[in-house]
Design goal:
With 692 residues, the chain is an alpha+beta fold. The chain has 9 helices and 44 strands.
């Protein structure tokens, strides 16, 4: 019976595969049986758009041998069938016959459609998130203590979600084994938790993390939420060659395609192929690795764009159509980035012939060029927007004399000023720049630079957002072995760190600096750490070690904004640590001014609340210990008779009297130096004491 079911399942799979490889061709000429071979000979070269399958071309006949005007074509690959359906549909054979072509799988679906309308079968009704689910998504932001949340993926593909604050520590909300098949991720604003599975992505949300949507995509490896969480992009990570395109449908979905989904309804809106890229060499093209993310989103989800050879393709939502039905042709374009706040794209092109390299600002949807800057002797340009969109930094890596060496300078665009003026920051030709980071709140940035191989300086600079020429050096931390600058999302505090592989001797050393006061405020070490990440509020930072990076010493340490460790947890196998993002909080200038004015009052209120919580915890522990002692004494009281009976029984085993024994003692002299110290600062323990 098991074997029979297996054979039947195999037969169904073969049949389904054949449907995906076949097309139905309508409106071919109707001829008598005598002219069949002539018709087949006429149609074959037109229908053979690729290698045919086992059944090839079959023209349908009626009981009299006359053709019915319908032909079936089986190809060797589904991709060929997809391409044929697009190429041949609408093809004009002659003045009287224009072909109509459909996939056989689609034809079967139409044939199996019932004539009775069933409202419950509507996709919109099936997938739509109800209003209650939508309202419950941001409830975690209303936590009275404004605690943070994080998720951990560990052994057995278990996912755990925790609350965290510096007083109570970690409090588990939910834990599930095999919640994911590989990994998890938060959405950009933190409303959803997405888990990866062999068959696609599952999205969870609300206070109890209920499953909200499923996005079927076989072998999915990558996922990306748009900036406002309206859309989800998924991909398997597999590229295709030109000519292998296919058109996915409900019956056949090519998992190699990038799919853009609507999060609210769970519907796929559009599929995009990702082609293999090659690098010209003397002998043959060398394939280049795929780049993720494929698309970059505008800040309001109105547009998304991708880079291809010599073009930037901008698509509009929700139609998913190409902006203006035309790609933006930019010869040699190398990279682009959206402004975090405005519909502006920054891109750069290399030197071509006598033309310089260029950095350009392009307004969307008008495609008006707002500003450009010509650059010479350019090897590479790295674009980095400031979070509030006020500045754009262009890290320009240039060739030195004789093109034997490279050096770095920065071209910084003032985006809020008329004509977008530019400040320039230059470094010596022998200096290597290894890091540049904007301060999230404020107008400062940090740079790691230096001439020595193992040591570098960390310099901080400030900008004036209202005029050019105001680039100012603040201070420098000299001769450090740091690789990264991680600003607190609150600004002011910069964490300097060396994060790499645990085998590196200087890995896992951290220093916290108050950039406003120019002072070191914290030090820490976590030598086995492979990652370092601030939480969304900017109050905590986590250093952690994942199993895939380093099999030993998995776990995490959490520090406060000044570098004091507030939690340390060891795990057997930890694959991910994920702080939950928060949506951007928008305050008016007046509201922000009021907060700064009353910050001392708020600080005192929060400190009082923390102290009360600590005292409550201390009292609770002391009361718990006192209750345990009282219960033990009560227990002993109930067993007093039993204890007396046992003692009497043991006394019966005593033989003779003490006088009947001669005690022999053997002495061995040993000199011991004893020093006694008394700590008079310590008090006696009592029932209310919190010490263990």
């Amino acid at each position: 019976m098991v074997e029979s079911r297996s054979l039947e399942r195999e037969r169904q799979n073969r049949q389904k595969a054949a449907l995906g490889r076949s097309i139905v061709v309508l409106n071919i000429p109707k001829v008598e049986e005598a002219k069949y071979e002539k018709l087949l000979k006429f149609l074959s070269p037109r229908l053979e758009v690729g290698e045919l399958g086992e059944k090839g071309i079959a023209i349908q006949k009626d009981e009299n041998g006359r053709t019915t005007g319908i032909a079936f074509v089986e190809y060797k690959k589904p991709e060929t069938a997809m391409r044929a359906s697009k190429l041949l549909d609408g093809f004009r054979l002659d003045a009287s016959h224009t072909l109509s072509v459909i996939l056989l799988a689609e034809a079967e679906k139409i044939m199996n459609t019932t004539e009775t309308f069933d409202e419950s079968s509507l996709v919109e009704k099936e997938y739509e998130l109800d209003a209650e689910a939508q309202r419950s998504l941001p409830e975690w932001l209303d936590d009275k203590r404004s605690r943070e949340q994080f998720a951990v993926v560990q052994e057995n593909n278990a996912v755990e979600v925790f609350w965290f604050d510096s007083v109570v520590g970690s409090e588990r909300i939910l834990a599930k084994e095999y919640w994911t098949d590989s990994k998890a991720m938060w959405s950009t604003r933190g409303n959803y938790l997405a888990t990866f599975h062999d068959k696609g992505i599952a999205v969870w949300g609300g206070p109890e993390f209920k499953k909200l949507k499923r996005f079927p995509h076989e072998n999915v490896s990558y996922a990306q939420f748009s900036k406002q969480e309206n859309y989800l992009v998924t991909w398997s990570g597999v590229e295709i060659s030109p000519g292998e395109e296919s058109l996915p449908s409900d019956d056949y979905v090519d998992d190699r395609y990038v799919v853009v989904w609507e999060v609210a309804t769970g519907r796929p809106l559009r599929w995009f192929p990702v082609y293999k890229r090659t690098e010209p060499t003397a002998e043959e093209g060398k394939e280049l690795p795929a780049v993720w993310p494929i698309f970059k989103w505008s800040p309001d989800d109105t547009y998304f764009a991708r880079l291809s050879e010599n073009v930037i393709s901008v698509y509009t939502t929700p139609s998913m159509g190409l902006l203006g039905k035309k790609k933006i042709a930019i010869p040699g374009v190398q990279a682009f980035e959206w402004s975090p706040t405005d519909p502006i794209i920054a891109y750069w092109t290399p030197e071509m012939g006598d033309s310089p390299a260029r950095v350009c600002l392009l307004e969307i949807p008008s495609r008006v060029e707002l500003r450009q800057k010509g650059l010479y002797s350019v090897s590479n340009v790295q674009l980095k927007w400031k979070e509030d969109g006020n500045f754009l930094s262009c890290r320009v890596i240039r060739f030195g004399k004789n093109r034997k060496h490279q050096y770095t300078n920065f071209e910084i665009f003032h985006m809020r000023d008329k004509n977008y003026p530019i400040d320039i920051l230059e470094f010596k030709e022998k200096e290597k720049v290894s890091a540049f980071e904007w301060e999230p709140k404020g107008n400062r940035f940090g740079v790691i630079h230096g001439e020595e191989a193992n040591y570098a300086d960390v310099s901080f600079y400030s900008m004036d957002s209202t005029s050019t020429g105001k680039l100012k050096h603040i201070f420098t931390v000299p001769k450090k072995q740091f690789k990264a600058i991680l600003w607190s999302p609150l600004g002011t505090v910069a964490l300097l760190a060396r994060v790499g592989h645990p085998s590196e001797a200087t890995n896992g050393t951290y220093e916290w600096y108050n950039v406003t006061e120019h002072e070191l405020i914290g030090l820490a070490e976590h030598y086995s750490a492979t990652h370092l990440e601030w939480d969304a509020s900017g109050r905590f930072v986590c250093s952690y070690t994942t199993y895939e990076s380093w099999e030993a010493d998995n776990g995490y340490n959490i520090y406060n904004i000044s570098g004091r460790m507030t939690a340390t947890v060891n795990m057997n196998k930890m694959y991910q640590f994920l702080w939950r993002p928060r949506p951007q909080l928008y305050l008016t200038a007046e509201q922000e001014k009021n907060v700064r004015k009353n910050i001392k009052k708020y600080r005192e209120e929060f400190k009082r609340e923390d102290d009360e919580l600590k005292e409550s915890m201390r009292s609770g522990k002391a009361a718990e210990r006192r209750d345990m002692r009282l219960k033990w004494a009560e227990y002993l009281g109930t067993k007093a008779d039993l204890i007396k009976a046992i003692e009497d029984k043991l006394a019966e085993f005593s033989i003779g009297k003490e006088d009947d024994y001669i005690e022999i003692e053997e002495f061995e002299e040993e000199f011991i130096d004893i020093k006694e110290e008394v700590d008079r600062t310590r008090k006696m323990l009592n029932s209310d004491d919190e010490r263990d």
